[in-house]
Amino acid sequence: MKCDRARLLTAAALAAAVLLLLLSARGGIRQPGAEVLFRFRLFRSLLGFLVGGSLALSGALFQAVFRNPLADPYILGISSGAAVGAAAAFVFVPAGLLFLCVPAGAFAGALATLGAVLVISGNARSADRLLLSGVVTGIVVSSLLIYLVSISDSAQLAGVTWWILGDLQGASPVLLGALGGLAVCALVSSRFFANELNALAVGDEEAALRGVPVKKMRLFFVISASLLASSCVAAAGVIGFAGLVMPHIVRLLAGSDHRRILLPAFLAGGCFLQLCDLLSVLFSGAKEMPVGVVSSCAGGMLFLFLLSRRRCS
Amino acid sequence: MNLAAENISFGYGAGTVLDSVSFELAPGGLTFLLGANGAGKSTLLKLLCGLLAPRSGEVLLDGRGIGGFSANARARRIGVMLQQSPPGLDFTVEEFVLFGRTAKLPRLAPPGAGDRLAVEKALSAAGMTSFAGRAVTRLSGGEFQRAVLASVLALESGILLLDEPVSAQDPAQAAFIFEMLSSLAAERNVLVISHDIDLALHYASRILLLAGGKIFADGSPDRVMTPENLARLYPLSGFTVSPARTFRFEKI
Predict the structure, then answer these.
(1) CA distance B72 to chain A (A)
(2) Distance (Å, whole) CA B107 – CA B65
(3) How far is residue A143's CA from residue A151's CA, in Å, rounded to a whole number?
């Protein structure tokens, strides 16, 4: 029954993604050069799909590894690390190189934070230790961000703020190829080890009793999920709630067995951000609304709805 | 399938919890392991399933050192029930019980007919069939304990090591579970850790008493459960052991 629901959800999310892609590519054309704009909108919608999907997959992996439904892709301080890397690029790099240095800096910042968290936690010796290391590292790294903001001028500050709010305008074929390749690798490998992920979600000791090499598998899932989140932040800034809420919705509809829900969660996350992007274009005035603002508002409301449903039931 | 401890010793830090413990599990009846809080019962269980490695001595599985088996090979042979709290995610009871077979599940294909049947039988044996579709986070403590037991039974292993399997059950449910375990023990090696002397007296065919890091008595309930042994097992100054009248649920 749940298996059928997961298949139905996968098919529905796939159809919705294609529909949203077409709608996004056709809509929002307000300037001359329609063909160029069509491609721009198509790439942008595809980037939204890949970023939303990757964040949802990353969230689903973190929630299972930490056995915590409130875990999100940024739980290990990755967004703070990426923000510091991006802010450093805005402050120290000439404007002409920002298109390259901001995503590179964000990715490097996220990876450096992940490395620090893994070292501090003794290579993810326990889920609790990893979680605490992530939270503390995130706080320390945030103080660096505050320092960088304090020494930036108004133009740099605007750049950092816009980037932190989430932005899909940097879509390019190279970026899409890289992000798509990573997402496919993460999806396939996570599905391959889904039995181990299920066992880890029950408990470390229980997983070990079921023959799972707990430390190795936890490290594998944490690195996969962190790489996904880091790439998303580097490509599109900090996009909130997609990674937290979408796995919840999929679990609600198709159960919690990770052998069934990883692909639907990815597709649903992709649709969610595509829809947020479409809304951000539709409801923008003279100045475009950052997609991160829409995703946080919509995701927050969805989360509150889920919470109230849970309380009622 | 055989499981034996040969002179195993273990300790945390500089202290010693178990000192040269030896015994062999045999099918044909339930074996109970009794001991006071902190005596090392759960530690011994974790040594027997390979979750911990002894400081000295060896655990033998089918005559071979347990360290020589891969984690998956060990997991397929030994089903272990530890004290456990519900997971944070909303797995259904059926999913949760199926995960007990992780070591035997296909990697990419859906669970086969054999897996489904094993889950069905395990749910029925633990009295959890009617809870199959419910989320484990919405079970009572006793129901969740039975779900954990079902997940261990679903593995269909030749050896079962159970740490206080009925500590959260009412007396009727405890009797139901021990009747089921007694019938399983005819063909499998079943070791039960318990604090319930009445249950041990009624269902055990063999009892091991653990105190001071050693098994100081090993035999049938009649031979082992003497007031002297019980006083040594649960030493508490100012208290003495006396036979008491109890009520018990029995299968009709």
Answers:
(1) 4
(2) 28
(3) 13
A62 domain residue, yes or no: yes
**Chain A nearest CA to B66, separation (Å):** 13
pTM for this model (two decimals): 0.88
Q: In the sheet where B56-61 sits, what is the strand order?
A: B18-25, B3-10, B56-61, B64-65
Q: What is the CA radius of gyration of chain A?
A: 19
Q: How far apart are CA B36 and CA A295, in angstroms?
A: 56
Q: Cβ contacts (< 8 Å) between A198 and chain B: which residues?
A: 91, 95, 99, 102
Query: How many whole angstroms separate alpha carbon B159 and alpha carbon B3?
Result: 8
Q: Measured between beta carbons, which residues in chain B are less than 8 angstroms from residue A209?
A: 49, 51, 75, 80, 82
Q: Looking at the domain assignment, is residue B251 inside a domain?
A: no
H or E element, residue A56 = helix A34-65
Contact call for A210 and B103, based on CB within 8 A:
yes
What is the C-alpha separation between A190 and A184, in angstroms, rounded?
A: 10
pLDDT tens per residue across all 313 residues of chain A: 566 777 888 888 888 888 887 777 765 445 556 666 677 788 889 999 999 999 999 999 999 998 888 788 888 888 889 889 988 998 998 888 887 888 888 889 988 998 898 888 886 667 778 888 888 998 999 899 899 989 988 888 888 888 888 878 878 888 899 999 999 999 999 999 999 999 999 999 999 999 999 999 999 998 899 889 988 988 888 888 888 899 989 998 888 899 999 999 999 999 999 999 888 888 777 677 888 888 888 888 888 887 777 665 5
Residue B90 C-alpha, separation from nearest chain A C-alpha, in angstroms = 6
Residue A219 domain-assigned (yes or no): yes
Burial of residue A247 (CB within 10 Å: 0-12, 13-18, 19+) is buried
Residues of A in contact with B97 (CB under 8 A): none
pLDDT digits (tens, 9 = 90+) for A243-253: 889 998 999 88
The continuous run of DSSP H or E covering A246 comes out as: helix A242-254
DSSP, res A290 = P
- The domain of A18 spans 2-308
What is the 8-class DSSP label of residue B200? H
- Extended strands (E) in chain A: none
Sign of the alpha-carbon dihedral angle for B229, B233, B238, B240 = negative
Q: Which of A3, A67, A206 sits opposite B88 (nearest CB)?
A: A67
Q: Does A121 map to a domain?
A: yes
Q: What CATH number does the domain containing A64 carry?
A: 1.10.3470.10
Q: What is the number of domains present in chain B?
A: 1
Is A313 inside any structural domain?
no
Contact flag B51-A198 (C-beta cutoff 8 Å): no
CATH of the domain at B87: 3.40.50.300
Domain count of the fold of chain A? 1
In 3D, which of B48, B42, B80 has the Cα closest to residue B61? B48
Rounded Cα–Cα distance for residues A167 and A105 (Å) = 16
Is B186 domain-assigned?
Answer: yes
User: Taken in order B232, B236, B241, B244, is the CA torsion positive or negative?
Assistant: negative
